[in-house]
Design a protein that fits this description.
Elements lengths: L2 H15 L6 H4 L1 E8 L2 E9 L9 H6 L9 H14 L4 E8 L4 E12 L2 H4 L1 E10 L8 H15 L2 E6 L6 H6 L15
Parallel strand pairs: 5-6
Antiparallel strand pairs: 1-2, 2-3, 3-4, 4-5
């Protein structure tokens, strides 16, 4: 197979998959139950919404990294910016415990548009966290699987992420392979 026909095929797939009328909110919304130590829990897997500010979204991120002070207006503006930057670029997946109105897991997929590999796309998974009281119920795998599904739907030829050494076994159980080395430069 020559690289020109391979690149043409990828571009054709991308053109078919990117529909500007297809909004973030239409991508997913799945309700399911999960068994926990306290019984059955009604959960909803969906994309981040403005009201999730009041459902503890920033607090769940705080279990992963320093969030800082973020007002509702700042949160709303950032979410709007993410949706406007390039349609179909940012996908923040959340799981809500519907009975408590609380966000209990999240992960973000960022779709990068490349010049390499025939102008293809690469998915980057970031900010994966499950509330400490809900860990052990495969919710982390659920948000990762949803990000992988969206990446495939968006025409990504690969999906990558960075993680600490202690989390490698978890991501391997989600189908990821250890490859190369992450480098970092701190701008501040």
């Amino acid at each position: 197979m020559n690289s020109e026909s391979s690149a043409s095929r990828r571009m054709h797939v991308l053109q078919q998959q990117v529909d500007p009328s297809h909004t973030h909110e239409q991508v997913l919304s799945t309700n399911f139950t999960s068994s926990t130590q306290s019984g059955q829990v009604n959960l909803s897997l969906r994309l981040l919404q403005v009201d999730d500010y009041h459902k503890g979204f920033l607090q769940i991120l705080g279990q992963l990294a320093v969030v800082g002070e973020v007002s509702f207006d700042q949160f709303k503006k950032r979410l709007e910016e993410q949706k406007k930057v390039v349609p179909q670029t940012y996908f923040t997946v959340v799981i809500e415990d519907v009975s408590k109105g609380k966000i209990i897991a999240t992960s973000t997929l960022i779709v990068e548009m490349k010049f390499t590999h025939g102008c293809s796309r690469v998915g980057h998974i970031e900010d994966v966290v499950v509330d400490e009281t809900y860990r052990g119920y495969k919710l982390g795998k659920r948000v990762i699987d949803e990000c992988k599904r969206i990446a495939t739907e968006q025409g990504c030829y690969k999906t990558i992420l960075d993680c600490s050494e202690k989390n490698v076994p978890f991501y391997e159980s989600c189908g990821f392979k250890k490859k190369e080395v992450q480098m970092r430069y701190d701008n501040h």
